[in-house]
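The record is kept unedited without comment:

——
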Amino acid sequence: MTTASALPRREIRRTGVHVTTLGFGAAPIAGLYRAVDQTTARATIDAAWGGGIRYFDTAPHYGLGLSEGRLGEALRDRSREEVVVSSKVGRLLVPRTPPLPRDDDLFDVPGDLSRRRDYSRDGVLRSLEATLQRTGLDRIDILYVHDPDEHWREAAEEAVPALVELREAGVLGAIGVGMNESAMLARFIRQTDVDVVMLAGRYTLLEQGAADDLLPTALEQGRSVVAAAVFNSGLLAREEVPDTATYDYELASPDVRARARLLASVCREHGTTRNPEEVHHNLVAHAQQVPDDLWADLEDRGLLRPVG
């Protein structure tokens, strides 16, 4: 793909960190569900860069560090001032004894490491140091607390304050929290000094629960929201929904598959597609003008929540 100029950017809160309107989530290149070879992973990152994407998100969780390593290698020779990289804290990687033949948490990689939850200040610092080592980058621009669902107190009272220290010291450009639960993200916005939250899978064509809590709170408080997992972990990634489609990282139920198929059908009726899975298709979809009557039709059929 011919290198394009960067896509339009949006500023995270008032931090001076500007992310492109379409970002690259680096979990799949680390063997999410099935193994991905190095050549394919690199070509995928290169395609994203060539299409103008300059925001890349990763985490230690993804492929037991493989995602961070592959992303760092691919970006190391790019203009560092042009790219924004985010990663996450909350899971430390430690040796597993005895090792498993395959990771036991979604990724098709060797299970020689395990994840240990740690939202303490020391855990944050150790996690960031390890991320910098794995990526080989000089800094991480945005750092999120990752999946603190059962760890509110530790995340709010220890991890976030540690990130605030790092931000105020100029080590980080912006800080946030990333998870699937929109209500808790709204609570983080109300009660902590995060700049941005990453919401995974709760504001998509399939479901818009975040419109009840997170989005109004973020708007009121002047915080940024990054919408992630917009394919609902695979269910919306194809125009034809197979029986093996996944939702919330598990096999989708027949009812959920039926709703996704109806969504795809309505989108086709209006001359557009839903959510293609390849990078270049995502870039085309991102630039596509969606007709206003599609949104109205989705609302009329009960597939999309009314706005306003």
Remarks:
- The radius of gyration is 19 Å.
